[in-house]
Design a protein that fits this description.
Blueprint lengths: L9 H19 L1 H21 L8 H22 L3 H6 L1 H6 L6 H30 L13 H21 L6 H29 L4 H32 L1
Helix pairs in contact: 1-6, 2-3, 2-6, 3-6, 3-7, 3-8, 6-7, 7-8, 7-9, 8-9
Amino acid sequence: MAVAMKKPSTWAHYVALLKKDLSQELHTKDMLTSMGLYALLVLVVYGAALAQAGSELDILQMAGGLLWAVILFTSLLGLNRSFSHEKEQGCLEGILLVPMDRSVIFLAKATANLIFLLVVTAVTVPLFFFLFLGQVGAAPTWPLMIAPLLAGTVGIAGVGTMLSTITMNTRGKDVMLAVLFIPLLFPLLWACVSATTCVMCAPEGFMDTFVTSMALSAGYDIVMILISWVLYDFVVSA
């Protein structure tokens, strides 16, 4: 007597895809190594560029923008590689043959990209503080920058996963991803830079600006990730 096999749940599909990405990265360490090395090189370039700036330069006012520039371009490098294994080994075609909601692929890949980006950010931020703010120091409210860091990385991972899927099979995908990625991320980048600068400098009445910037970044994350989730079935099947 044949026994009917139980169909795996959506959660089981999500966990399986996420485990695949995490175990593959832990085995090769391609993305984490390249992103970490790139972030370190950008910090070295910052150091060389600002070495002759003199004491009149207010590095604290620029710190938020400089930090987010590192995070943004480092994430761009990682997103370019996020589907490299699936494309080179033909895994994506096999995954698409599985009878499941295609948006699960988006959620699993975006979660993996978020984890990788958070790991690199957790290393980059202390290095940035040590190299550029060690003598200047930041305001006592600087721990609040965790909020814009989380909001920014969530948005970058979600929107970036969608765009990396769109550009995966295009000619010159590296350039095409950057062309789409940076303008689309500008509202989130602006809000996160504003919130980060506020808590680093803590000017009078900074909490109003901080709350407004965080509300903008949270709204951006919700809207853009929902749009990416809804459209992903069409994008990955195209």
